[in-house]
Amino acid sequence: MSDFNAPRLFVDDDLPGPISFDQRQTNYLKNVMRLKAGDTIIVFNGRDGEYRALIGGLGKKAGEAVGEEKLRPQTKRPSLWYAFAPLKQARLDYMVEKAAEMGAGRLVPVLTQHGQVRRINRDRLTANIVEACEQCGILSVPEIVDPMPLATFLGSLDGRALVVADEAIAGEEGDPIATIRAAGQPLAVLVGPEGGFSEEERALFLPRSHRVSLGPRVLRADTAAVALLALVEAAFPSA
Q1: How many CB atoms neighbour CB 84 within 10 A?
Q2: CA 195 to CA 174: how far, in whole Å?
Q3: The CATH number of 8-72 is which of 3.40.50.300, 2.40.240.20, 3.30.1440.10, 1.10.760.10?
Q4: In the beta sheet, which residues pair with residue 20?
Q5: 187-191 and 161-165 as β-strands: parallel, antiparallel, unpaired?
Q6: Which of 131, 156, 195, 200 shows the smallest number of beta carbons within 10 Å?
Q7: Which of 225, 75, 79 is nearest to 140 (CA)?
Q8: How confident is the model at residue 174 (pLDDT cuts 50, 70, 90)?
Q9: Domain ranges of the chain
Q10: Which of 77, 153, 94 is nearest to 129 (CA)?
Q11: How many Å apart are CA 109 and CA 132, to the nearest integer?
Q12: CATH: 3.30.360.10, 3.30.1960.10, 3.40.50.300, 3.40.1280.10. Which one for 81-235?
C-alpha cells in the first residue's frame, strides 16, 4: 500500500534520481503543504514504481528533489477499457476521475448520434486522471484517447469482450455481475449518451456485446459510469 500520510506526486523524471518540479507542483509543496528542503514526499512516474524522495529546494517557480528509496514496484496498466459518450465539462471531469480510481486502464470517448459533446480537452482530462492517481495510490496512469465514432470503437476491439449499459433494458431481470463475468476478459465497457443509443447504433453493437441493466431507474451518464465499473470490480476483483 502507498503511504497516504505523505504528499504524493506524479513526475516525468526517471526514478530513482533527480526530480524537477514545475511551478504548480512547487506551489503545492511549498505553500499548500508547507514543506521545505529536507522533507520527504512520495513520487511515481508510471514507469519505474513508487519512491520516497528528499526535497532539495523549493523556489518561487521551481523545485527539486531526489528519488531515493523504492517503496513499491511498478504495476501493469489495467486491461479494462472504459468507453463513454463525452459529457459537459464538470461532469466529464468527475467521470474520468472515477474511471481512473475504479480500475480503467484506457478511456475512450465515443461519438454517438444523441451525444451533445463532440470534443474534449485531453490535457485537462489527463490532469484530472493524474490527480486521481496521486490521491488514490495508483501507479499506472490510465490513458485517454481522442474521440472516435462508435463504429470505429467497435472495430478497434479486436476480440475484446464488450459489455454495454443499455437503458433499453433498464429494470429487466437478470444478474449483471454474472453477465459481465460470462463476457470474460480482456473487457471493454460502454456507457452511452443521456439521450440514449439510436436504433442504428444499437444494431451495430448488439451482435458483439453483452448488455446489462443498471437497475430500474435510468441513470445520468456519470452515475452510470460508477455503477457499471463497480459491477466490473465485483465480477473481476482486482485484489
Answers
A1: 27
A2: 24
A3: 2.40.240.20
A4: 64
A5: parallel
A6: 200
A7: 75
A8: confident
A9: 8-72, 81-235
A10: 94
A11: 18
A12: 3.40.1280.10
Predicted TM-score (pTM) of the model is 0.92
Q: Cα 161 to the chain's mean position, in Å?
A: 19
User: Cα separations (Å) of 206 from 30, 201, 227?
Assistant: 53, 9, 21
CA distance 114 to 195: 5
Over residues 104-121, the pLDDT tens digits come to: 999 999 999 988 888 999
Q: Is the separation of the CB atoms in 50 and 70 below 8 Å?
A: yes
The C-alpha atoms of residue 176 and residue 216 are separated, in whole angstroms, by: 13
Beta strands in 102-206 (DSSP E): 106-111, 143-144, 148-149, 161-165, 187-191
